[in-house]
Specification:
Elements (H helix, E strand, L loop, with lengths): L3 H12 L7 E7 L6 H18 L5 E7 L4 H12 L6 E3 L3 H14 L3 E3 L14 E3 L4 H15 L5 E6 L2 H16 L6 E5 L7 H9 L4 E5 L2 H13 L6 E3 L6 H4 L10 E5 L10 H13 L5 H18 L5 H10 L2 E2 L4 E2 L11 E5 L8 E6 L7
Parallel strand pairs: 1-2, 1-3, 3-4, 4-5, 6-7, 6-8, 8-9, 9-10
Antiparallel strand pairs: 10-13, 11-12, 13-14
Helix pairs in contact: 1-11, 2-11, 3-4, 5-6, 11-12
């Protein structure tokens, strides 16, 4: 039955809850611009959780498109704070989160996000709760799979010039060096670049044996497509953008051969169980395939419902509950490390060159290198 695992986790709490006070949860995410695919997944996950699990607590959502500028995110948050919410779902874009955090701190309102940018939980804010594993987790999985499973010794790295890209690149460089496979080439790519052949040509001159990517979805698809079309069939281990069905849809199945990607989860790769039930309901509701960002934000919003059901009503009470309790979500068990990092597991998925549905190749549990 749909969402059985989460429903069971909430049932005991709901049984002791008092009457619910109606509240609108702001969902402040980028659903236009270069992060629209990922932002739409984040929105869908939050809305689905509040709609299906939060009704008993009188919760509903109001979605605001933050675009991709820090100013857009801050404006959306300030408007939402006028209604004194107990929490807000906030942008997955690192530059937007870095701008939103001081505003949330002044208001004392917790932010629930799936941003992967490491720095957002390194600022000492008590109001950041990240439900997608940060770079300190997923980059461990990406590097270890390349070196330990695929035998890479001369990796190359293409990463985005954004805060997200630089954060992941820094972690990858350190982890790969520690594994005895330092980078032989690295280059940062601006989000506006469409012609990837110059970077690929420079990379080939370094004679790498594997290509690692830490790019947003559009850039990831462009690099892989142009590499394959130019005859470069080297193995690729990409960042979490590649696991998204919307990214895979931009490529032919044959172009995905020998392509793997790290992620928090891969809902469409789970054939049975609670995650498969989530996937079926998501398809029915939105008409598209879910990804790990949708599932992680679903779990994050479900934990907010659990906090409310446990008696946490004010922003202070919700923040304290999220910081002190663990929660069995669909993708994994979430618990704060004291900095607001709630997710500590990762997977690596791989495509077989015949379909756009990847298989889970390896699971990595509690691999947070900051612990």
């Amino acid at each position: 039955m749909f969402l059985k695992k989460t429903a069971i986790a909430l049932a005991a709490i709901l049984a002791t809850a008092g009457s619910a006070r109606a509240e609108t949860v702001p969902v402040l995410v980028p659903i236009t611009g270069f992060l629209s695919l990922e932002g739409t997944s984040q929105r869908n996950g939050a809305v689905m959780a509040i709609d299906t699990l939060g009704a008993a607590e009188g919760l509903e959502t109001e979605v605001t498109d933050t675009g991709t500028t820090p100013e857009g995110a801050v404006t959306a948050l300030r408007r939402a704070l006028a209604d004194e919410p107990s929490a807000a779902v906030s942008s997955m874009l690192g530059t937007q989160m870095l701008a939103m955090i001081p505003v949330a701190d002044r208001a004392g309102v917790p932010l629930l996000t799936v941003s992967g940018t490491a720095r957002i939980t390194e600022l000492g804010s008590p109001n950041v709760f990240r439900f997608f594993p940060g770079d300190s987790v997923v980059k461990v999985a990406q590097a270890r799979y390349a070196v330990e499973k695929l035998g890479a010794r001369r990796p190359a790295l293409l990463y985005q010039t954004t805060a997200y890209g630089q954060s992941g690149a820094a972690h990858l460089k350190e982890i790969l060096a520690g594994l005895g496979a330092p980078l032989v080439f690295e280059e940062a790519i601006d989000i506006s670049v469409k012609d990837m052949l110059p970077a690929l040509t420079r990379m080939q001159a370094a004679e790498p044996d594997i290509l690692l990517l830490h790019l947003h979805s559009g850039s990831t698809a462009l690099v892989i497509r142009q590499a394959r079309e130019s005859g470069n069939m080297f193995p690729v281990v990409a960042g979490s953008a590649m696991h998204q069905p919307t990214t895979a849809a931009l490529l032919e199945p044959a172009q995905l051969k020998d392509v793997c990607a790290e992620s928090a989860s891969s809902p469409i790769s789970e054939p049975v169980g609670p995650v498969a039930d989530f996937t079926a309901e998501y398809r029915k509701r939105f008409g598209i395939e879910p990804d790990a960002f949708a599932l992680a934000q679903y779990d994050g919003a479900a934990m907010l419902v659990a906090a409310r059901a446990a008696g946490a009503k004010s922003a202070d009470e919700v923040r304290d509950w999220l910081a002190a309790n663990s929660f069995d979500g669909l993708a994994m068990t979430y618990k704060s490390d004291g900095k607001g990092n709630m997710a500590h597991d990762a997977v690596v998925v791989c495509y077989d060159g015949k379909s756009r549905v990847p298989a889970i190749a390896s699971r990595y549990e509690n691999v947070d290198r900051t612990n």
